[in-house]
Amino acid sequence: MAVQNKDQITTSKDHSHDDLDLRGTLYSVFTVGGIFVVLWVVCFIIFLLRM
User: Fold this and answer.
1) How far lies 48's CA from each of 32, 38, 39, 44, in Å?
2) DSSP state of 16
3) How far separated are the first and last CA of the chain, in Å rounded?
4) What is residue 21's predicted lDDT score, i.e. its pLDDT?
5) Helix%, strand%, coil% for the chain, nearest 5
6) Could you tell me the CA-to-CA distances from 41 to 1, 10, 28, 46, 48 in Å, in that order?
7) Which UniProt keywords apply (predicted)?
8) What gap in Å lies between CA 8 and CA 21, rounded to an integer?
9) Is the pLDDT of residue 49 over 80?
10) Distances 8 to 1, 17, 25, 47 between C-alpha atoms, Å
11) Cα–Cα distances in Å, from 37 out to 3, 8, 29?
């Protein structure tokens, strides 16, 4: 285990969650979700055409 200096412990700031910018995360999740929905619809259409 690494031992931290006393200066490093006192200089670290506790960041609140209100300061985080999560727009990129939201867009990424919506993009991946959109891809899953489109692929599911395409697979469902292929399934219906083969019946």
Assistant:
1) 24, 15, 14, 6
2) -
3) 61
4) 82
5) 75, 0, 25
6) 51, 54, 20, 9, 10
7) Membrane, Transmembrane, Transmembrane helix
8) 26
9) yes
10) 16, 22, 30, 60
11) 48, 47, 12
Token readout for 50 is 């083969």
Rounded to the nearest 10°, the torsion over CA 22, 27, 28, 34 is: 150
Taking only the tens place, the pLDDT of each residue in 5-34 is 665 555 556 667 777 788 889 999 999 999
Residue bearing tokens 């619809």: 41
Count of positions (residues) in the chain: 51
Structure tokens at 42: 């395409």
